[in-house]
Write a structure and sequence with these properties.
By secondary structure, this protein is mainly alpha-helical. It contains 6 helices and no strands. It has helices spanning 2-26, 31-53, 60-86, 89-96, 98-111, 117-134.
Amino acid sequence: MASYLYMLLTLIFSSAVGLLYKLAGIRRYNVIVISLLYFAVASAALFLYILFFASFQLDVISICTGLLGGLCAFGATWAILNALRFGKVSTSWTIFGLSLVIPTMASIIFWGERLTLTKGLGFVLVCISIALIGKDR
């Protein structure tokens, strides 16, 4: 049951981030500064969370993975900001949604996660939604 609460919170917070970025783009705010603060606040909050509630162990693999992940997060943020600036929010966020589908597909293919009927249906619906939204142009 707790996992559903966390999934709901993820949906709410991720949606809020997308709406804030779109609002910033519409009002021509400095989205680079917004992104910098976004990552700075998220990093500080995560550091405090780890400090007070979780364990913190540094090892080479974790450091390398974190650095690579940070570079990927920068690339994704830069790309979505430009997509939102030049395109439609509906199309941009739908394509951005693939960033959730691709890791799920990889875990089925490479790490043996089970493909359930609901996951398969979800993949089909994502593909259909991307095709339908793409026809909007």
